[in-house]
Amino acid sequence: MAENLSIQKAQSATAKSSAGSEFTISRRTFVQSLGAGLAITVTEAISWGQRRGGRGGAQGGGMPVVARLHLNEDGTIAVMSGKVEEGQGARTELSQAAAEELQVPFDRIRIVMADTDFVPDDGITAGSRTTPGNVPPMRQAAATARELLTRFAARRWQVEPNTLEVRDGTVTNKATNQKLTYADLATSKEIAEAFKQPIESNIALTAVSDWKVMGSSAARMNWRDIVTGTHCFPSDIVRPNMLYGRVLRPPAYGAVLESIDLSAAKAMKDVVVVQESGFVGFAAPTLFQATAAMEAAAKTASWKPGPPSPSSKTVHAYLKEHARMGSPSEKGFADAAKTLTATYTLAYIQHTPMEPRAAVAEWDGDKLTVWAGCDGPYRVKGDLMRLFDLPAERVRAIVPDMGGGFGGKHNPDAALEAARLAKAAGKPVWIRWTRAEEFTWAYFRPAAVIECKGGLDAKGKLVAWDFVNINAGGAAVDTPYNIANKRCQSVGSDSPLAQGAYRCLAATGNNFARESFMDELAAVAGADPLEFRLAHLENQRIRTVLETAAKHFNWSERKKKITPELGVGLACGTEKNSVVAACVEVGIDRKKGEIRVREVCEAFEPGPIINPANLTSQVQGCIVMGLGGALTEEIQFENGKILNASFADYHVPRFRDIPKIDVHLVNKTDIPSAGGGETPIIAVAPAIGNAVFAATGVRLRAMPMRGDALRQA
Fold this sequence. Notes:
Elements: H1 6-12, H2 27-34, H3 39-51, E1 69-71, E2 77-81, H4 90-102, E3 109-113, H5 130-157, E4 164-167, E5 170-173, E6 179-181, H6 182-185, H7 189-194, H8 223-228, E7 243-247, E8 256-259, H9 263-267, E9 272-276, E10 279-284, H10 287-298, E11 302-304, H11 315-321, E12 338-346, E13 358-364, E14 367-372, H12 377-388, E15 395-398, H13 413-425, E16 429-432, H14 435-441, E17 448-456, E18 462-470, E19 485-491, H15 507-525, H16 529-535, H17 540-553, H18 555-559, E20 566-575, E21 578-589, E22 594-605, H19 612-631, E23 637-638, E24 641-642, E25 660-665, H20 684-696, E26 702-703, H21 708-712
Parallel strand pairs: 2-3, 7-16, 12-26, 14-15, 18-19, 22-25
Antiparallel strand pairs: 1-2, 4-5, 5-6, 7-10, 8-11, 9-10, 12-17, 13-14, 13-16, 17-18, 20-21, 21-22, 23-24
């Protein structure tokens, strides 16, 4: 297992040295890291990565095998990916994909990721797209390489390729027992030339039923470095003669700098001060010095206040007032025997990754290299090219495996700041946002107002549906239920805070509102929540996970034991071409106004499962993260200022908040694999709200759901 870390260590371990060892690996260093092999392959791979610089779309356009794959004389294979490892398991999964199609053991793969001098542009790591969007191209590249190697052996032995067998990195002539290993072929010039051919997009891939590496649990490739603390995250990068940077931030949203006196900061020893338009930054040999310079300058700054804006207490009324809405739908409601309306709201929340934004920038003449915590290395590169008007070959972006993102690190803010300071200082500059900066200036998951209306016929069947999300977006806005008359839409508004992507986008909020409202309708119809859903579900995949979760939770029996202090609830949904259902049990203390989640039983189906252990961890992580958004997380703000910009005041789930978690994976093998890092979060909040309603009769329609409403009821 330790040998698997050679590439990662080549890209990160030497960064800790301040004695002059070179972190920016050269082509020679790269070849040495891989071992002897096809040097032409490395050259071509680098050329391809630079040629694609910042344009994206490297999955197509005739990408050669050489851009994805490199053979080594020791029998290992290096593969290249532009994806980022931010804790979701992409490094391991992509390695499994390559190993499967090359027919080699998993531990022979060496993967190079997220370095624009060596890897193709695979787009940002977001939207659960690595599994459906990047695993297939990796498999195609490996399968093409395997086919080319098999054809080469067949020509050498003058036999038909279909008479040969590939197993454990060895091509065998079954008739004569002649053998050629991948290592034997590593220095072949003919193979080098063959690898310049385009990857065959229509090449036959290993059937799911024949998977040997994929479909089985594999440990994270660099797990030892992670658990021993030797892995270099973006925050850990150290360069010779490096300075530490700080950036002056406005006192509130919308504030504009009118004047500032930088003389005191400039007078400080070894401090570099940069003022470019609205950007004011400081760099110094220590973080303490840089902070002192920033604070001295901040005392002299004069700011023009931004326009008036709502507070967190009034934001939902503001969003509705500024919504760009059309007329409500009345289709089907005239014939309904009963109608019900409800409004749900979502607060702004932060992503709170373990590692805040961080970057190191270094100029070598007119060549810029940046190590950054951002989920798109080519996005970093492109933004730097535009900021400094540089051609692609003069910019290199590297993203070491980083400490979380959850959709919150699409923008390379810290990288741009570090590069500005490094250019002025003539030395490398390190920047890591403080936790308060991360809470305040990173974008938020959007707040929302979601308006629901449903109509039931005389038999309790749902016949009309109107569902409108204001501000949060359209992910999973459509209902999976079979309803004759329905309108589902997302409309924009004017957000007072910066907002952007968050784990599963708007699907969490839309599913919260829809699944909560389905329970409300079930109550009006006098139906069991499970049976009410099944009666309106034609989607067999959702039915399967719903029935699986209910079975393992023992829904029918536990529902009979509901009391005012103990409730059970369920919810289901679909997004990212995967399906999920959850059952929960909550304990309620009405006197204290407390909701305690005791158990979550969740069933999840993403198609064929590539790595069961990793997928289970992803589902568990989604459940824990979902607890925070459901019950405690909320950004509080007033007059353009964030009021709870610390973990002391912003409550993410702690160990004491974690319930019993029971995960059941459903392996559906007749469809393509989907990602598992997002969808499992969407069923958590509505299942909790439905359990509270079952116990108390009180419907909590706001995320986070506050127990205070139960105490007041």
